[in-house]
Structure to design on (970 residues):
C-alpha cells in the first residue's frame, strides 16, 4: 500500500468511508511514523493505547454508518490544550506532572467529531517563543532540516513538525503573536488563526488572554477549513467567545475570487526585505490577479509600533496569567521555609529563562509609575492598529503579506539567543493581526534557494475566515507546493 | 448633633473617618463560577475548577450577582453605571488560587450615593458613598491545625462581594456605628447581604485620621483591616484617633500604614508599613468583556425595589402617628417592621407600637427569641390591643393576658373568654360592689364626708379589688364619686 500517512485529512476520510483502510491501520501507521520520527522531538506525550481504542471505536462507527465529521482521523494536540486524563505540560517543568481532569472545549469538539488523539505536541514553554527552543522538553527539529538541525518555528513547533513529517494527519495549535502561522510557514504547512472569539479558550493554558486563539495546522487549505469547522463555535464557558454562526468553510474553497480586492500593505515591504520573500509575495499577488482579483497597495500606518505594542501587552497579561503556577495546588513544587520562599523556589526552578523574562517585563509594565507609560500607551496603540485594519478593509477584502521575513534558522542560533529582540523581530508580520483580533492563514508558497519553505499570509475581515479560504485555495492551486 | 471633640491639655481635635465595607452577596452560586456559596459545608467541597485556579479555566459572570449589586446600589441612592469593567488585582497569597483577584477598579458598577443615618439625639446625618464595586472573595487559610503546615479551604474562594467605599464623612465613632447599622438594615431589607459581621459576611476596613478642630485639612490616615463588629469599629476609631493625637502632640508624624485592630485590648498595631504596601498592578481583566447595562434592565430592577427603612420610617411617622424614635426602632429590621404592620392593621397603630416597644420586645429578650420565633403572633398582638381599645379588658388585665399569650400562643379573645377576664361595664353590677364597699366601711365614708376626699381613690381600689380587676376603672371612678357625694 502507498503511504497512507501522506494523505490529507479529506482524502483520508474518503478512504475510510470507502473502507480502503481502517482507522486502526491508519492510526498504527501514524504511530510508526511517530516512532521513526522521535528524533524530531515533536511529541511530549504519546498515547498510543488510547489512540488505538479511539480508532477501534471509529471503525465501529464506520461499520454502523454512524461516522462523524472527523471520524477516525489521528490528530496531534498542542500540549497547551488541557486533555482529560492525558498529561498537559505547556512544555514547562512547572506543569510536567499535571494531568487535567477536564477537557478543553476545542479538543472536546474534535473528540465529539470522532477524532483520534495520538499525543501531545511540543511547543515553546507556555507558548512563549518563536523557535520551539524554550521548551522544557528540548527543541523540536524541523523535518526540512538538511545538514544542520533547524528550528520548526514556534510556538506551535511540535504541531507543524508533526504535520510536516506525517506524524499526525493534522494538529491543533494556538496563536498569540504568530504561533500557528510562523511554524506552519517554516515547516511547509498550512495553518489558520481564526478571528479572536471564534474558538473557545476554555481549557487552553492561557498565555495572553486577549490575544490567544486556537486553530489548526494541517497539510493543506481544505484540511484547515474542515478542522476549523470542528474546532470553532460559541462556548458559554468562555465569555470572550462570540455567538456567531460558523459557516461550512469547505464550501468556500471553490468560490470564485473574481472582483475581490487584495490589499498589499506597503509597510510590510521595508527596505532590506529579503528578496526571495519579496518576489514570492509578488508572485502570489500575480496568481490572484490572474484569477480576476484586483490587487492594490494599501497602508497600515501604525505597523512599526506593532512589535513594541505586542511585547508590552502579551507579557503584561502573561505575568498575571502565570501567577497561579505557584506550587500550592498542582504542578511542580520546591519547598521553602515559608510561603514566600516556597513561591520563589518553585517559580525559580519551575519556569525557564524566556518565561521568566516575559513575567519580568509584564510585571514591570504594569507597575505603579510605569503603567501609563507602557501598558496604557500600548492599549491605545493597539486601538490604532485595529483602526488601521478597519480602514484598510474599506478598500479591500483580503490583505496579502509574507508570513515571516525569514526561513527556518538553525537551532541555537547565537544572534537570536544572545539578543531576544532578534527573535522577536521574526514576529513582525504576524503580531498586528493578533492585536487587531483578525483571522489570518499561512500557506506555503514555495521553497527558498536553500530549499526551505516560505509562507504567505492572508488576513481577513473579522469572522470572515470563509473568504480567506476561497483566496488561499487559489494560491495553493497555483503555487503547487510539494509537501515533504 | 453634639460634636465629637477630643480635648487634651494642648488642644482640641476632630476625627475624620471613612469606611470600606466588604459585603458578601447573597447568591446561589459564586460570582465567576457555578459552585455553591453555601456557608459551613465541609472544607473544599464547594470548589469548581475555576475557583481552584486550574490551568485554562475562565471566569464567567454570574448575572444574579450583578442583579444584587444593582439592587444594593439603588438602596444606597447611588448612580448605577451602565458601563463597568473588571480588573485584576495581582498579589500572591495561598488562599487566592489564581494569585489575582478579579475586581472592579477604574469603572465600578455603582457610583456616588448616600445614606441617611439616625443618631442617638434624634438628629440625622447624610453620609456620602464614593462608589461600590463587585469582586470575588478569597478562600480561608487555617494556620492553627498544625505547627508546621497551613491548610486552605477554598469554599469561600470566588463568593461574590460588594465593596462599598464611603466618603470621609464621619466625625465621630457614633456616626460610623450608626452608618454600619443602617447599611446592614438596608442590605437585609434588600436581601442582598445577610450583614453578619461576626460570621464575616460583612467586613469593615476603617480609615482614620485626625485634624485640629476647626481646620479643613486631611492628614495622613491609617487603615485598620477587618474590624468585625460595630462596637469594635467604634472602639478602633476612638483609640486610633487618640494614638494619632498623641503622636502629633509629641511632635511626631503619623505614618501611612495598615494596622490591625486587637479586639481583646481595643488597640491597634502595625500590620504593614507603607514601603511594604503591595503594588497590585491592576489592569483590565482580559477574560471578561466590559459589563454593559441597559436602561431597561436597570429600570426592571428599580421596579423590584421594596420600601426601604427610611421611607418606611417616614410613613410610620406620617401615616401611623408613631414617634420618630419608635419608627426608627421598628424599621431597623424588616421582619420587625413587617410584624408591626401586620399587628397594627386595623388597630390603633400607636398603641401596637407601644406594646411592641415595651412588653413584646422585653418578652423576646427574656426568652432569647428572634421575632420570627415569637409565641405571640402579630395578629394576636393586634387583637390584644383591640380588646383594650374596645374596653373589653383593662390595660392591667391585658398585661396578664399577654403573659398567658407568650406562654401558650393562644389568641387573646379566647383567653379572656375562658378565664372570664372580660371587663365589667354593667353599671348595676358595679354599683352593687360599690354599695357593699360603702356598707362595709362606714368609718371611711364618714371621713370622706368630713372632707378627706382623697379617700375616693381608696374606694375605687377596693371596688376594683372586689371585682377581681374586671370592673372598668373609668366607670368605677365615676360611680364611686356619685355614691359618696350622694
Amino acid at each position: 500500500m502507498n503511504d497512507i500517512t501522506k494523505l490529507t485529512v479529506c482524502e483520508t476520510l474518503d478512504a475510510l468511508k470507502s473502507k480502503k483502510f481502517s482507522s486502526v491501520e491508519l492510526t498504527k501507521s501514524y504511530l510508526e511514523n511517530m516512532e521513526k520520527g522521535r528524533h524530531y522531538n515533536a511529541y511530549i506525550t504519546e498515547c498510543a493505547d488510547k489512540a488505538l481504542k479511539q480508532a477501534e471505536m471509529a471503525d465501529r462507527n464506520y461499520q454502523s454508518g454512524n461516522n462523524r465529521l472527523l471520524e477516525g482521523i489521528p490528530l496531534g494536540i498542542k500540549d497547551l490544550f488541557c486533555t482529560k486524563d492525558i498529561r498537559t505540560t505547556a512544555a514547562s517543568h512547572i506543569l510536567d506532572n499535571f494531568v487535567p481532569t477536564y477537557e478543553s472545549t476545542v479538543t472536546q469538539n474534535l473528540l465529539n467529531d470522532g477524532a483520534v488523539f495520538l499525543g501531545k505536541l511540543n511547543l515553546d514553554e507556555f507558548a512563549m517563543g518563536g523557535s520551539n527552543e524554550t521548551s522544557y522538553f528540548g527543541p523540536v527539529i524541523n523535518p526540512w532540516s538538511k545538514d544542520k538541525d533547524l528550528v520548526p518555528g514556534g510556538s506551535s513547533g511540535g504541531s507543524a513538525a508533526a504535520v510536516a513529517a506525517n506524524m499526525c494527519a493534522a494538529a491543533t495549535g494556538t496563536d498569540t503573536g504568530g504561533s500557528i502561522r510562523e511554524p506552519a510557514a517554516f515547516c511547509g504547512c498550512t495553518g489558520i488563526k481564526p478571528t479572536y472569539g471564534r474558538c473557545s479558550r476554555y481549557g487552553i493554558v492561557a498565555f495572553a488572554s486577549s490575544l490567544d486563539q486556537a486553530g489548526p495546522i494541517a497539510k493543506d487549505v481544505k484540511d484547515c477549513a474542515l478542522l476549523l469547522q470542528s474546532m470553532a463555535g460559541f462556548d458559554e464557558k468562555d465569555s470572550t467567545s462570540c455567538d456567531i454562526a460558523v459557516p461550512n468553510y469547505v464550501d468556500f474553497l471553490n468560490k470564485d475570487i473574481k472582483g475581490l480586492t487584495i490589499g498589499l500593505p506597503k509597510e510590510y515591504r521595508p527596505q532590506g526585505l529579503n528578496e526571495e520573500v519579496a518576489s514570492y509575495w509578488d508572485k502570489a499577488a500575480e496568481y490572484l490577479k490572474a484569477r480576476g482579483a484586483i490587487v492594490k497597495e494599501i497602508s497600515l500606518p501604525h505597523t512599526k509600533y506593532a512589535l513594541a505594542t505586542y511585547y508590552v501587552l502579551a507579557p503584561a497579561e502573561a505575568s498575571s496569567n502565570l501567577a497561579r503556577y505557584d506550587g500550592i495546588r498542582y504542578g511542580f513544587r520546591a519547598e521553602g521555609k515559608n510561603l514566600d520562599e516556597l513561591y520563589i523556589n518553585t517559580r525559580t526552578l519551575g519556569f525557564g529563562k524566556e518565561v521568566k523574562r516575559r513575567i519580568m517585563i509584564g510585571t514591570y509594565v504594569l507597575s505603579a509609575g510605569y503603567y501609563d507609560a507602557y501598558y496604557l500607551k500600548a492599549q491605545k496603540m493597539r486601538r490604532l492598529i485595529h483602526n488601521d485594519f478597519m480602514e484598510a478593509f474599506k478598500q479591500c477584502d483580503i490583505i496579502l503579506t509574507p508570513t515571516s521575513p525569514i526561513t527556518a534558522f538553525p537551532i541555537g542560533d547565537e544572534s537570536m539567543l544572545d539578543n531576544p529582540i532578534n527573535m522577536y523581530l521574526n514576529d513582525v508580520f504576524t503580531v498586528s493581526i493578533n492585536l487587531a483580533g483578525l483571522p489570518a492563514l499561512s500557506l506555503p508558497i514555495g521553497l527558498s534557494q536553500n530549499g526551505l519553505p516560505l509562507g504567505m499570509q492572508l488576513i481577513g475581515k473579522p469572522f470572515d475566515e470563509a473568504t480567506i479560504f476561497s483566496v488561499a485555495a487559489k494560491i495553493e492551486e497555483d503555487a503547487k507546493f510539494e509537501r515533504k | 448633633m453634639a460634636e465629637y471633640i477630643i480635648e487634651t491639655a494642648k488642644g482640641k481635635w476632630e476625627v475624620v473617618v471613612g469606611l470600606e465595607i466588604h459585603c458578601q452577596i447573597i447568591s446561589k452560586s459564586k460570582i465567576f463560577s457555578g459552585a455553591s456559596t453555601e456557608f459551613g459545608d465541609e472544607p473544599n467541597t464547594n470548589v469548581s475548577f475555576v475557583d481552584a485556579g486550574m490551568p485554562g479555566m475562565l471566569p464567567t459572570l454570574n448575572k444574579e450577582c450583578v442583579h444584587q449589586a444593582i439592587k444594593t446600589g439603588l438602596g444606597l441612592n447611588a448612580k448605577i453605571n451602565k458601563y463597568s469593567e473588571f480588573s485584576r488585582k495581582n498579589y500572591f497569597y495561598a488562599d487566592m488560587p489564581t494569585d489575582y483577584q478579579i475586581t472592579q477598579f477604574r469603572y465600578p458598577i455603582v457610583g456616588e450615593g448616600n445614606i441617611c443615618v439616625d443618631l442617638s439625639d434624634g438628629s440625622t446625618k447624610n453620609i456620602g458613598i464614593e462608589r461600590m464595586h463587585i469582586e470575588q472573595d478569597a478562600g480561608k487559610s487555617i494556620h492553627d491545625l498544625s505547627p508546621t503546615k497551613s491548610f486552605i479551604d477554598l469554599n469561600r474562594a470566588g463568593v461574590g462581594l460588594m465593596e462599598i467605599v464611603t466618603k470621609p464623612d464621619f466625625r465621630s465613632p457614633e456616626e460610623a456605628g450608626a452608618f454600619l447599622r443602617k447599611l446592614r438594615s438596608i442590605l437585609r431589607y434588600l436581601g442582598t447581604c445577610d450583614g453578619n459581621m461576626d460570621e464575616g459576611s460583612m467586613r469593615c476596613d476603617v480609615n482614620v485620621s485626625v485634624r485640629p478642630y476647626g481646620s479643613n485639612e486631611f492628614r495622613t490616615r491609617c487603615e485598620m483591616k477587618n474590624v468585625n463588629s460595630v462596637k469594635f469599629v467604634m472602639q478602633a476609631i476612638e483609640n486610633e484617633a487618640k494614638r494619632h493625637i498623641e503622636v502629633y502632640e509629641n511632635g511626631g508624624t503619623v505614618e501611612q500604614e495598615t494596622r490591625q485592630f486587637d479586639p481583646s485590648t481595643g488597640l491597634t498595631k502595625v500590620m504593614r508599613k507603607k514601603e511594604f504596601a503591595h503594588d497590585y498592578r491592576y489592569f483590565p481583566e482580559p477574560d471578561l468583556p466590559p459589563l454593559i447595562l441597559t436602561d431597561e434592565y436597570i429600570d426592571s430592577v428599580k421596579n423590584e425595589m421594596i420600601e426601604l427603612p427610611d421611607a418606611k420610617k417616614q410613613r410610620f411617622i406620617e401615616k401611623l402617628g408613631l414617634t420618630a424614635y419608635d419608627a426608627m426602632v421598628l424599621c431597623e429590621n424588616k421582619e420587625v417592621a413587617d410584624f408591626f404592620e401586620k399587628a397594627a392593621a386595623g388597630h390603633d397603630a400607636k398603641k401596637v407600637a407601644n406594646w411592641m416597644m415595651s412588653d413584646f420586645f422585653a418578652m423576646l429578650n427574656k426568652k432569647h427569641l428572634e421575632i420570627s420565633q415569637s409565641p405571640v403572633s402579630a395578629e394576636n398582638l393586634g387583637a390584644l390591643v383591640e380588646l383594650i381599645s374596645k374596653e373589653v379588658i383593662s390595660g392591667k388585665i391585658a398585661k396578664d393576658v399577654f403573659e398567658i399569650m407568650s406562654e401558650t400562643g393562644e389568641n387573646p379573645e379566647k383567653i379572656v373568654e375562658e378565664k372570664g377576664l372580660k371587663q365589667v361595664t354593667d353599671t348595676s353590677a358595679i354599683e352593687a360592689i360599690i354599695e357593699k364597699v360603702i356598707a362595709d366601711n362606714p368609718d371611711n365614708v364618714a371621713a370622706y364626708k368630713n372632707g378627706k376626699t382623697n379617700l375616693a381613690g381608696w374606694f375605687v381600689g377596693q371596688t376594683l379589688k372586689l371585682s377581681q380587676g374586671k370592673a372598668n376603672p373609668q366607670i368605677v371612678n365615676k360611680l364611686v364619686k356619685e355614691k359618696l357625694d350622694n
Notes: The longest strand of chain B covers residues 12-24. Chain B has 15 helices and 16 strands. Residues 6-301 of chain B form one domain. Chain B touches chain A at residues 49, 52-61, 88, 90, 92, 94, 97-100, 150, 152, 279, 281-283, 286-289 (CB under 8 Å).
